[in-house]
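note to self: the first set is below, dont mix up w the second
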Amino acid sequence: MSSQLPAVVVPAFIPSPSQGVWHLGPLPLRAYAICILIGIFAGYWLGRKRWVARGGTPEVLADIIMWAVPFGLVGARIYHVITDNELYFGEGKHPIDALKIWHGGLGIWGAVGFGLLGAWIACRRHKVPFLAVADVMAPGVALAQVVGRFGNYFNQELFGKPTTHFWGLKIDSGHRPEGYADFATFHPTFLYEAIWNLGVVALVILVDKRFKLGHGRAFALYVAGYTAGRAWVENLRIDTVNHFLGLRLNVWTALILFVLSVAYLVITSRTKPGQESVVTAPATPEGDEPVEAAEGEKAADGGEDEAADNDVPAAASDDGDKAKVGAVPADESATSSSAASATSSSAAAEPEPPAVPAEPADESPRPPVKDNPSTPDADRD
């Protein structure tokens, strides 16, 4: 008895989404924007866990993110429009299209640069170390890029050269660039970069856990790791961009940032080892002293005064005569506390003998001495 196994159809390519926009009534839901928002929340989630582990408060980081994200989005669009200005300005172009961010076109370099500027402003407001915030958020930024790259997948953009491999990405004819109309499948560079960035996330977390990266080194490691992969992926892409000395502009940017980040890692690992603290405490008002120090100083300064007070004889006469041997009078001790404090160390080294109170003078009238005929004249004198 023979049996037939059902045939399993394995596609020879990765299909592209049939649509990237859904309408909820008059409101369009764009996959590109959704991917970016999910990436932001994923990056914040990871950064928040690392920030709390370092001793920071989540409220502070949330406010920093509220500054960094708008700055990053604006910067990403500005960088794209500047470096690809021929897409929006010139004959037959519509400059208003530069504002249509939902059509794609966000430069990661501008996003990171302007995002750091917004974070720096917020860090100054909260008086927390900016480089520590950059370190804890470094793998979160890479994670946000992982999710955000799928927005390019839904838009069918930023793909690579044609390929016949089974992981090739099928692109609809309306999205194929000029000169590639006869090719159906292309390198899925969005997927390459997403997988690479997952590796960068793991790299930063593991190295930071092992070596306790601080003073911006975790962020520098993220930059070095990301730019190394971006330079390779960028060379596979076929979208129209500006070139400089035979290389795509983004390749030059990646190479320069890679060199700078590696140099920063090497230099700061020697000049600023370890991690900075992110725990902030309210500053002590100027002029205030700890209670323990004040009490200790009081005891040191007032030691002799208390001794002097204790040395006052109880048999002092009613007329206020308080003379005694080896004791400091109370009225002098009240006006010479600084002198007592200056001599306290020598007094401690060589203690004085305990003061012996002098017997009070007996000023009561004595009865007259009667002449004793048996007493010699010399004794009577």
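second set (the one i keep forgetting abt)
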Amino acid sequence: MKKFRVAVLSDNPSTKDPRIWRITKTLAELGYEVTLFCQKEKGDREYDYIENVHIRRVLDYKLGTSVLIDKYLIAHFQLREALLKEERFDIFHCHDPETWPMGYLMAREQKAKWIADSHEYFPDYIEKRYYGNDINKYKTAVQLTKNRGNYIRYADGIITVSEQTLNVLSEEYCLTCPKTVIYNTRHSDDVISDCKQKIRQELGLKEQLKYLVFAGNIMPDRGIDTIIEMVKLMPSHYKLVIIGDGLSVDCVERESKISDKIIYLGRLDYKDLIKYVYACDGYLYFPHHYGENMLGNYKYTIPNKLFDAIFSDIPFFTYDGFAFSECVKKFGVGIVYPVELDLISIANDIVDKLENHTFAKESFSKAKSYYSWENQKYNLDNLYKQILLDKFEKEEHNEEFASTK
């Protein structure tokens, strides 16, 4: 029986995106012959074979959405040359719009199928502040992203990170091909088995204190100022652990020096980050809600931090109006607050819920089961089967037509 060949295209180094690596390994586990084409960092080997996955590090530059056209054109040529050196592929699995044009072109040439895998709500995810005062560069980046995004109309399969993203894209681009949602989550057994008290002792966290955590990009609109003020309104034995870096680091460092309620740890390796999340008592995530002006990507996608909280058995406290808010409400693994509610009311309610042990272990068990990578594996397998069935039917039809001529 033929073993189908899959080319996975990524704009990142092989180790920088856990979601891409999980999907790639899962495809190998499902019986596909998989080659990951990705960016090459200094010191990387050009070729590896890890966990039944061929890795080709071929890009000297990112494929990108900037206006530095020379480098990004070189990267596209490098990717195409590497793909042409291989035997033909049956499916091109293309992560994010940067890889979609090449996936589309190669699939047409090789009479293969291609999948548009969108990690973001790409029509609206580029933030103006990263471009400073260069409005032309910002507008060019937005236009390039939209141009590449239009390739989704011709995909043979679609993957997104949330149902909301899939629904909006399906409506905007009139998508009729096979589609699925694959959450950026973990395997069900990817949890810390040691008791929380042991981990707290290891990390130097005191038994008598309550620790709340925020981990991720420390940006102004991620609500870091909101949660700092919120924790200051709580009793003295409540502390806030902040992990990460970003534009608001100076503010966070200043607060950690003047307030004993704020503990700033900087950027940590993921395995260490997870230990702290697991050891804490609750997760705070109160991004600024801009109403109609809110970036679509914030509204429709689901951050890893929600799954970090769920798999650590700690409640997730946040605002309503986001895709991840619906996940919290669905399983009761936290509390969702109206954006107009004052901070003192939210702070008091969080304290009340934690002091009264409101959250049941069963809620987290059900959420972990539902969002487990095992379920995502099923969705991935089913999508591939639909796409390959369509490929078979068209090939058989073409063979029958040719035999009657």
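remember for set 2: Residues 5-185+373-404 form a domain with the Rossmann fold fold (CATH 3.40.50.2000).
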